[in-house]
Structures are given as structure tokens and as C-alpha cells.
Design a protein that fits this description.
Blueprint: H1 6-14, E1 17-18, H2 28-59, H3 61-71, H4 86-100, H5 109-178, H6 184-259, H7 264-275, H8 279-290, E2 299-300, H9 358-395, H10 406-445, H11 460-476, E3 507-511, E4 530-535, E5 542-547, E6 552-556, E7 560-564
Antiparallel strand pairs: 1-2, 3-4, 3-7, 4-5, 5-6
Helix pairs in contact: 2-3, 2-5, 2-6, 3-4, 4-6, 4-7, 5-6, 6-7, 6-8, 9-10
Length: 565
């Protein structure tokens, strides 16, 4: 009898395999590549701006104003996603300040050329080399993982081929064994061939299992170690570039303050713009602009081609399965795209933005819904104004004919009905999109440990305040949260040691995620809400905060971005 290698296969099947082609990094690597390139382009644009500015200032203020117009963003701020970054906002504000004191620029031309242009141009070259190195590292990691996947595919095909050959050899040996005209030598030869093929299939199975384990290990290292480290390096590089660019903005104002006291007001505004560059906030803005809301993919399951081999040929048994038919399992030929660096297919833009990732779809639908509500409110206000005007005309005919207002009133009513239907349509789409986001978020949170309980030493009045705030927030919330276990009480008794509640906040914080404080001692908060920090996390994972509209309670520390006084 041939040794059964299924124990190894079962162990491999239990180790879940990540679906590389459907990775959550599919678009993010390209986004980072575009953003870092945009950042370097902005740095180069700024250097070029200052260089040309020194030339224009020596000629006259008119040329300076032309330069400002040249570098002012062409698109309106609401249509330009780059305007959300503090770097871009500071740059625009600097251009506006430069336009205000046109004609006073000749005295600063030489200093700007040396202190800004040369330094930032040199720094830009260093950043380009560092960026190139990081992206080359990422692509090498991709190629290594791709090579491992090809080896896995080859071993799987070999395993399948050997299984089929072993099954074929077993059937041949069985047929000869039952054939009364076959010689004993032919039967023995067929049995030996069946044993050999079965042994080869077993070795192929072991090789496939080992290759699968190796690929899963390499893939896990790729997604949980290599790529996050590369992304962290790119973020650090981009934040350093942004900080340096902000310092370059500051140099522009500092140089002018030294020689042009008459325009100190304008220069102070430019200094404020330079200080407004917030590298961390820009990174968060980038994340909010492009986060998809997708959950990480599941694992590739093991495809076992050895099911027909459960019985092994022997001198006394070479039969087929009980139904008389060999059981052969084919290979799944469907293959999805897994790599995060692949080119995106051209998508068709739909009215409900379903072509976008869930988080982006939700934001776009929310934006469209707000626009429709504003238009609806405008039409309703216009309808009320027309009604009042019609009443005035009816009471005072000499002021106008009431019938002349009927077409406008009818048009307004039609617009209101149309907008109401659109609002209902977008509300339905938005509810569906939010459910998708919450579902994906729940899948992701399900893989992590739930937040710990709040401190047992929470004061009683804090608990009551938080409950009232929770009820107020619960009425305004459209959907319940997806976190598990939030309906259970956070604590049931107080510690003997009681720390007195501080009379005033010790800092402030911003809610990164929505939290529905439905349990005792907690308080609800909305994503992006500003809160007062009343008590720091004491190691249990919960922080006590106060809402602006009143009410205190505990929220998960991991849901906050905290800033102490």
C-alpha cells in the first residue's frame, strides 16, 4: 500500500491563502505614485515660480502680476481635489499675497534666487532619487511574488497531471487483471506501473503542498510587511518633502521681511500660509480622498486533485469507485487579477457611482444629495416668494397681474417634484452605499480584537451625561453601528479608588470614525466631530470626552486623534 499524504494537504488547506490578484492595494500603489509625483511637480513648480519671479520683479510689477496669474490654479477650488491639501492652499495664498504688493519686488530678487531656488532645486533632485528607489523596491517585491505564484501554478499542474496518469495506470492494471487472455507478466508489469504512477502523484502532491505553504508565507510577508513598509517610507518621504516645501514658503516671506518693511503685512500673510502646511493632515486628506472602503480579500483555497487516488492498487484489489466511474477533478480555469500594480480597466461612469469603491461612492452620493437638497430648498423658497407676490397682486391689482405668475409657479412646482424624486433616489442609493461601507468595515473589524471596556472607575455623573448624549445622537443616526458587543454594559460597578473629574478639558480630539455609544458609560460621536478631552486613556483602551452640545462619556481611544493642551 502507498502512504496517504492527505495529512499534509489538510494542514495546507487549513492555512488560508490570500487572493493576491484581488488585493486591497490594487489602486493604492498607483495613487501613491501619482501623489508623490504631484508633490515633486509642485516642488518644481514652486522653484520655477520663484526663479521666474526674480526675473519679472526686476522688470516691473506688471510682469509679476502676469506670473501670478500664470501659476494660479485654473480650476475652481471646489472642483480641484488638490486644493484640499494645505500645501496647495498655502501656495495659492502666497500667489495672492504676491499680487497685492506688486511693484515692490526688485530688492528681494537676488536673495530669493540664492536662498529658495538653489536650495529647493537641489532638494527636489534628492527627493526624486529617493522616490525612484522606493518604487523600484516595490516592483521588485511584486516580481518576486509573481515568480512564486508561477512556481505554485506549475507544481499544481504537475500534481494534476500525475494524478491523472496514476488513475489511468490503475485502470489499465485493473483491466489486465480481469482479462483472462492477459499473461501474468503483463498483469505484474501493469501493477508495478500503477504503483510507480501512484508514488509519483504522491510526490507531486507533497511538492505542491510545500510550494503552496511557501507562496502563502511569501504572500503574507508581501502584504503585511513589505508593502506596508514601502508605503510608510513613501509617506515619510512625502511628509518630509511637504515640510521642506513649507519651509521654502517660509523662506520666501522671511527674505522679503528683511529688505521690504513697507510690505510687512503682506509678508506676514505669506508666513501664515507657510506655517499652515501640515504634512500629517495632508496625508490624512489623501487617505480620505482615495480610501476605497473595500475589505481585504479572502484566501485561495487548496484544490485537491488526489480524490480518485484514495484506493491503491494491490494484488487483491484494483477496482474502480463504487459507481463504476473514475472521479477526476479538473482545474478551475477562472483566474482573477491579483496584483496591486496592474493597470485599471476602463470603467463606465454610472449615475449612482457604483463604478467607484464603496467609500468614494458614499462620498459622491452624499455630495449629490446635499446639492439636490440645496436646489430643492431654493425652489421651495422661490415658490413661497411667488405665492406672496401673487397674494400682493390679488390684493393690489395695479401692481401686477396675478395670472402672469402662474407659469412660473407651475414651473417651480414641477422642479420641486423632480428634485424630490431625485432626493429619494439618491437617499436610497446612499443608504445602500452606507450599508456596503459598514459591511466591509465590519468584515475588517471582525479580524481584530474588539475595543476593551472603559475604566471601571468612571464617575456616576459622567455615565448619566454620556447616556443622555448617546440618546440624542441615536435619534439623529440613520443606521446602527456594525461593531459587535456594543449593546452590552461597559461596566457594572465602580472601583473603590475614585479620581476627581477635572474641571476643565486637558486637550481636544477629533473623531476618526463614527461611534454609537449605546452602552452604559459611553457616548456617541460622529466621524470628524471635535470633542473636548476630559481624561486620558489609562491603559484600558477608553478615553473620556465631552461633546460641544453637552454630555460626557467614554469612547474607544483608537477612534480618536488626540491633542493635549
Amino acid at each position: 500500500m502507498v502512504r496517504d499524504p492527505l495529512a499534509t494537504i489538510r494542514r495546507v488547506q487549513e492555512e488560508k491563502v490570500w487572493d493576491t490578484w484581488n488585493s486591497p492595494y490594487e489602486d493604492q500603489f498607483e495613487v501613491l505614485e501619482r501623489h508623490t509625483q504631484w508633490g515633486l511637480d509642485l516642488l518644481d513648480r514652486y522653484v520655477k515660480f520663484v526663479k521666474e519671479r526674480t526675473e519679472v520683479e526686476q522688470a516691473y510689477a506688471k510682469q509679476l502680476r502676469s506670473l501670478v496669474k500664470k501659476y494660479m490654479p485654473k480650476r475652481p477650488a471646489k472642483d480641484d481635489p488638490e486644493s484640499k491639501f494645505s500645501q496647495q492652499q498655502s501656495f495659492v495664498q502666497i500667489l495672492q499675497e504676491v499680487n497685492d504688493f506688486a511693484g515692490q519686488r526688485e530688492l528681494v530678487a537676488e536673495n530669493l534666487s540664492v536662498r529658495v531656488c538653489l536650495e529647493l532645486a537641489k532638494y527636489s533632485q534628492e527627493m526624486k532619487q529617493e522616490r525612484k528607489m522606493h518604487f523600484q523596491e516595490g516592483r521588485r517585491a511584486q516580481q518576486q511574488l509573481e515568480s512564486g505564484f508561477k512556481q505554485l501554478e506549475n507544481s499544481k499542474r504537475k500534481f494534476e497531471r500525475d494524478c491523472r496518469e496514476a488513475e489511468k495506470a490503475a485502470q489499465t492494471a485493473e483491466r489486465l487483471d480481469q482479462d483472462i487472455n492477459a499473461t501474468k507478466a503483463d498483469v505484474e508489469k501493469a501493477k508495478q506501473q500503477a504503483h510507480l504512477r501512484s508514488h509519483m502523484a504522491e510526490e507531486s502532491k507533497n511538492e505542491y503542498a510545500a510550494q503552496l505553504q511557501r507562496f502563502n508565507r511569501d504572500q503574507s510577508h508581501f502584504y503585511f510587511s513589505q508593502m506596508p513598509q514601502i508605503f510608510d517610507k513613501l509617506q515619510d518621504m512625502d511628509e518630509r518633502r511637504a515640510t521642506h516645501l513649507g519651509a521654502g514658503y517660509g523662506l520666501l516671506s522671511e527674505t522679503e521681511l528683511e529688505v521690504v518693511p513697507i510690505i510687512a503685512k503682506c509678508l506676514e500673510g505669506m508666513k501664515v500660509a507657510a506655517d499652515a502646511v501640515n504634512a500629517k493632515n495632508d496625508s490624512q486628506v489623501l487617505i480620505e480622498l482615495h480610501k476605497s472602503g473595500f475589505a481585504r480579500p479572502g484566501d485561495v483555497e487548496f484544490e485537491d486533485f488526489s480524490q480518485p487516488m484514495n484506493r491503491v492498487p494491490s494484488d487483491s484489489s484494483l477496482g474502480t469507485p463504487s459507481d463504476g466511474r473514475p472521479e477526476l477533478r479538473g482545474t478551475s480555469r477562472s483566474r482573477a487579477k491579483r496584483w496591486p500594480f496592474g493597470k485599471k480597466n476602463k470603467t463606465v461612469v454610472t449615475e449612482d457611482f457604483s463604478h467607484l469603491p464603496p467609500e468614494q461612492q458614499r462620498k459622491r452620493l452624499q455630495q449629490q444629495l446635499e446639492e439636490r437638497n440645496r436646489e430643492l430648498q431654493k425652489e421651495m423658497d422661490q415658490r413661497e416668494a411667488l405665492k406672496k407676490m401673487k397674494d400682493v397682486y390679488e390684493k393690489t391689482p395695479q401692481m401686477g397681474d396675478p395670472a402672469s405668475l402662474e407659469p412660473r409657479i407651475t414651473e417651480t412646482l414641477n422642479n420641486i417634484e423632480r428634485l424630490k424624486l431625485e432626493v429619494q433616489k439618491y437617499e436610497a442609493w446612499l443608504a445602500e452605499a452606507e450599508s456596503r461601507v459598514l459591511s466591509n468595515r465590519g468584515d475588517t473589524l471582525g479580524r481584530h480584537t474588539r475595543p476593551p471596556d472603559p475604566p471601571a472607575s468612571a464617575p456616576p455623573d459622567s455615565s448619566s451625561n454620556s447616556n443622555s448624549g448617546s440618546q440624542e445622537n441615536k435619534e439623529s443616526s440613520e443606521e446602527p453601528p456594525s461593531e459587535e458587543g456594543q449593546d452590552a454594559p461597559i461596566y457594572t460597578e465602580f472601583d473603590e479608588e475614585f479620581e476627581e473629574e477635572p474641571a476643565s478639558p486637558i486637550g481636544h480630539c477629533v473623531a476618526i470614525y463614527h461611534f454609537e455609544g449605546s452602552s452604559e458609560g459611553t457616548i456617541s460621536m460622529a466621524e470628524g466631530e471635535d470633542l473636548s478631552l476630559m481624561e486620558e486613556d489609562k491603559g484600558d483602551g477608553w478615553t473620556r470626552v465631552r461633546r460641544k452640545q453637552g454630555g460626557e462619556g467614554y469612547v474607544p481611544t483608537s477612534y480618536l486623534r488626540v491633542m493635549l493642551n
